[in-house]
Amino acid sequence: MRVLKEKDRILYDKLVRLAGGNSGIVIEVLSNPHRSSVDLRTAIREIEELRNRQSREPASSISQAATA
Fold first, then answer.
1. Is 57 among the domain residues?
2. What's the confidence (pLDDT) of residue 2?
3. Is residue 1 part of a domain?
4. Structural domains of the chain, count
5. Which residues of 2-27 are buried (b: 16+ CB within 10 A; e: fewer)?
6. Which domain holds residue 50?
């Protein structure tokens, strides 16, 4: 990843916090190869969706294991 300017680093850190500390989510959203740029509103929405999807997956696997 390229070296970030200080203000970019602060924004990146806040996005990682929004992603529940998962920097992989932020990298996935910001490096989407299907678009040339991303606005902040879209990035926040996508990060929240991925975070929420990942937080639901472990809970569903635990309930499946309990019923087995």
1. yes
2. 59
3. no
4. 1
5. eeeeeeeeeebeebbebbeebeebbe
6. 6-67
> Would you report the helix, strand and coil content of the chain in percent, each value rounded to 5?
70, 0, 30
Distances (CA, A) of 19 to 24, 26, 62, 64, 65: 9, 7, 22, 25, 26
Q: Which of 11, 36, 37 is nearest to 26 (CA)?
A: 11
pLDDT one-digit tens code per residue, 17-67: 999 999 999 999 989 888 888 889 999 999 999 999 988 876 555 555 555
Given this model, what pLDDT does residue 6 score?
A: 85
Residue 46 placed within a domain: yes
Question: In this structure, is residue 19 part of a structural domain?
Answer: yes
Residue with tokens 């200080």: 6
